[in-house]
Every structure is written in C-alpha cells, then in structure tokens.
Specification:
286 residues; mainly alpha; hpI Integrase, Chain A; 2 domains; 59% helix; 3% strand
Length: 286
Amino acid sequence: MRDNRLARAVGKYVEDMRMRGLGEAYIQESRGVLKRFTLFCIEHQIRCPSAISPGVLRGFMDKHREYAAKTQAFYLTILRGFLRFINSPLAWKFRYRIVGRGRQVRWLSLEDVDKVLSTPMTPLEAIAVGCHFLAGMRRIEVRRMTIWDVKEGVRTGQVTLIGKGSKLRTIWLHPDLREIFRVYAGTTDSSTKAKAVPLSQTQYTTLIHRVSDRSGIPFSSHDGRRSLLKNLWRLGANMATLSALAGHSDSKTTEAYINADVDDIREAIEMYRPQITVQMVSNPDR
C-alpha cells in the first residue's frame, strides 16, 4: 500500500485540535470535511501535503458548490486551518468565491424523491431524511423529537411537537415513515426522554449531505419539506391542506413554497387545448 503522508498530516491536525481544547463536536465535523478532502486528493493521485495546489482546492470546493453558502464557508475555513497547520502558503494565497447567500431553492421530483428514499441509509439517517421528505417536518422539529415521540408515532401514526415559534403542532406520519419509526425504535435502548436525533446543527447538516452524496442528488433538509408540499400540490392537494400540513398560519407562506417553475409552466401550456384546427399555407394572402 502506498504511503499517504496527507492522511497522516490530517490525523496530526485532528490531534492538534484536541490538544488546543476545541469542542469534540467541532473536531468531528472538521475531521469529516478533511476526510472528504483526503479522498478527493487520492482520486487525483495526491498523497503528499506539498502536492496540494490551488486547482485541487478549487476542484474540491466546486464539488460542494450546491451546498448552502454557510456550509461552503465552513469547508473553506477548515481547509485554511489545515493549510496553516502544514505551513502551506496557500493558506493565505488561495481565494475562493462562495456562491449564494443562503440555501439554493430546489424542488425534487417524485422520481428524485424515490431515488433519495431508496438510498441505503442507517436508521438514524433514514428517520432524519424521512421526516423531511415524507412528513414535511422542519429541521428544528426533527432535532426536538424524543424517543418517546418516535414510539408514540409507531403506536398512533402521528406525533405532536413544538415547532417554529414554540407552536405546538400535530404531524401525521406517512405509512413508510411510520415503518422507519418502528425500525428505529427497535435499534435504541435510550431513555424515552432522550433525543431521537442527538446531533448538533452542523452534525445534522453533515448527515443530510452524506445521504445526498450517496444518492447522487443534491438536497438540503428544507428541500425535502419543500418537495413534499410542491409534489402534493401538483398531485391536486388544495392550499388549505398544504398549509395545515406545513404548520403555516398564513397560506401565503405556503404559496412561496410551491411557486410555479419551468415544469409547471410547460405542463400548463400543454394542457391548453383550444377546439380549433390550425391551417397553414405558404402564402395566406393569395
């Protein structure tokens, strides 16, 4: 097996972060980014820290260009910290323009949703992703959910959670999501008061990105919620139902989730069938 000095340097950097007393959650998140970077370098036949070039750094960042601007900035911060650790001049010279100011708005088609949900996932990944795509839950709601809520969902087919703005709302579970809850409940022996998804916000984002990479379809947690509302609307669900499902007090908020896109416009045009026959001749004035 070929010597990989880059992987060893990453290991030393992680240990250095621990010696500096950084939080373990932050260290693990940083380690995940650097592991991705190491694998990217290996794919490009780079195994030595001194061989890292601006092109390699740019290629790695471009690979994650679909991510939110905040996540891209985090990746760039971790890379620069590592470059400083190995005394690379690129730590100060490398510049990268982060695109977007926030999440990129996306709606996934039913086919893409099916592909995401068919991706091999751990029970923890499945319950997080399933809650977004099959129940339209917000990230904060998933992270607040307890083991007791999961077991109650298995028993009754619904969960009642404190959502955005500390508002209490009841969420009905899709049969497939209820089955995910059942499987997950059988894999944990934690206290019923424990969090079902015990992850920090950044760890949670990393989990979603991990499944996104595995499925080959870029998406965020909010894209799952948005896709559910959009697809139900296209299947004929009315606005009142969608607002109730999303937990929106104002239907205008829901409307923003399902704004018409190119596919909607194309389908609307194709649905227009006037009862006429267009006659075409070479010169209509003759």
